[in-house]
């Protein structure tokens, strides 16, 4: 091939954990055949983060023989990956092997079905997810060798917005910003966050499916670029009890089908919030507990919800108040939107966006009235509704949600409840370092 030409195509889909899974194709074969479809084992949407085939799924099992599903490239998503030599990446949908329809439990398919519900009403959803992560002066190998203890962060101090400190890290962050931008992801900025070596990267808002696609490519790209530069990154929601957690705040709004008119903005209304927006936000508040599993999918996710850490603990909305679970942004402007602050950096964006859309639509359909905004320190609001404190609590609320069963389908609910309960089971039977430290001598 000519110098600079693409010789490798990554045909990827997103698994339940939000990771890119797929195959590396020689470009000539992709153009000849694989652009239409390829295949993968259906256990890839029925396993855990260790790639362990999990028993008990209805969709895939040893009893069913772990057959194939179709990996269908969405050619609208193809992009060059500048940090990988002569490589392009395309995201794919996961289809049933027999009738070629989206698998019900496929994360991208779940979001697409919620977007179809919006489209039927003439609504267009625009989203932006802000990702936070910790950057380490370690490789993944050295971090593993230290058993993930006493790792050197890129900065020894909290560096929130501090230019002088983040300049020390900018070799990596500049490579990330520029690499992602050249891959077609419109990075707006990066900044230091409220933890030593903690970073945030912001991408321009987009239609919801496009934003979810950007999110997963960004997350994968950050890790790959850091690895190439001898560094390590973690997107754990709470990698250290003593430090700030890492979030994925999600901004969302509804627009006209042509994307030109904000359906959330009413210049005559209080705070500039249209009646449609008020019902949408009221739905997200009412069903925030139901959808928390989609915003916080792991045991570790719930360690982040601590008072006084900029992570929310209460299901309440407020005007430009970072102690609340939902924050009004862009008040009295066409940029008006609601920011959900519950999600951690470990979420799967397709599932999180789908949950927020389902809750917002329920608020519209039920004609919910929005309560008055909370004022003050939400951490101290004793009478305010709590965000579920554990994965077990969030799973139970998700499993019992009539709204989600109607919006997502019982098959999806069953699949992701099983996923969450397996995660809980795996944790419950492990002996942790905390238990050893606390009890080895003293019990």
From TrEMBL:
UniProt keyword Ligase present: yes
Keywords carried by this UniProt record: Ligase
InterPro entries xref list: Gln_synt_N_sf, Gln_synth/guanido_kin_cat_dom, Gln_synth_cat_dom
Keyword Ligase recorded: yes
Ranges where the GS catalytic domain occurs: 107-443
Cofactor requirement: Mg(2+)
SMART domains for the chain: Gln-synt_C (SM01230)
Family as reported in the entry's similarity comment: Belongs to the glutamine synthetase family.
Descriptive protein name: Glutamine synthetase family protein
């Amino acid at each position: 091939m000519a110098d600079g030409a693409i010789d490798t195509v990554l045909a990827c889909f997103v698994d339940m954990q939000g990771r890119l899974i797929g195959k590396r194709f020689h470009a000539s074969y992709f153009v000849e055949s694989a652009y239409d479809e390829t295949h993968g084992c259906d256990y890839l949407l029925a396993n855990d983060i260790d790639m362990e085939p999990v028993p008990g799924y209805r969709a895939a099992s040893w009893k069913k023989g772990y057959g194939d599903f179709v990996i269908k490239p969405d050619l609208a998503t193809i992009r060059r990956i500048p940090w990988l030599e002569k490589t392009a990446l395309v995201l794919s949908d996961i289809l049933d092997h027999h009738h070629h329809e989206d698998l019900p439990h496929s994360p991208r398919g779940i979001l697409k079905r919620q977007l179809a519900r919006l489209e039927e009403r003439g609504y267009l959803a625009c989203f932006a997810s802000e990702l936070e992560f910790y950057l380490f002066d370690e490789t993944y190998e050295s971090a593993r060798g230290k058993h993930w203890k006493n790792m050197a962060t890129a900065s020894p101090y909290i560096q929130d917005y501090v230019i002088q400190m983040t300049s020390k890290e900018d070799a990596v962050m500049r490579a990330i910003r520029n690499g992602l931008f050249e891959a077609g992801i419109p990075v707006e900025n990066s900044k230091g966050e409220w933890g030593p070596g903690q970073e945030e990267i912001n991408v321009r808002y987009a239609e919801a499916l496009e934003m979810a696609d950007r999110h997963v490519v960004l997350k994968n790209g950050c890790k790959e670029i850091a690895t190439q530069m001898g560094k390590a990154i973690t997107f754990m929601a709470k990698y250290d009890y003593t430090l700030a957690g890492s979030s994925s705040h999600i901004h969302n709004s509804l627009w006209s089908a042509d994307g030109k008119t904000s359906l959330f903005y009413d210049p005559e209304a209080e705070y500039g919030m249209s009646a449609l927006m008020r019902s949408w936000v009221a739905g997200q508040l009412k069903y925030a507990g139901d959808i928390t599993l989609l915003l916080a999918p792991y045991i570790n996710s719930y360690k982040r919800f601590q008072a006084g850490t900029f992570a929310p603990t209460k299901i309440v909305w407020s005007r430009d108040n970072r102690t609340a679970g939902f924050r009004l942004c862009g008040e009295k402007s066409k940029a008006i939107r609601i920011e959900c602050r519950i999600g951690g950096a470990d979420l799967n964006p397709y599932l999180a966006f789908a949950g927020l859309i389902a809750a917002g639509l329920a608020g519209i359909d039920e004609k919910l009235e929005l309560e008055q905004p909370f004022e003050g320190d939400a951490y101290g609001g004793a009478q305010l509704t709590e965000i579920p404190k554990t994965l077990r609590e969030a799973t139970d609320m998700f499993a019992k949600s009539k709204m989600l069963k109607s919006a997502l389908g019982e098959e999806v609910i069953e699949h992701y409840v099983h996923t969450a309960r397996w995660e809980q089971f795996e944790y419950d039977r492990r002996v942790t370092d905390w238990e050893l430290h606390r009890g080895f001598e003293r019990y």
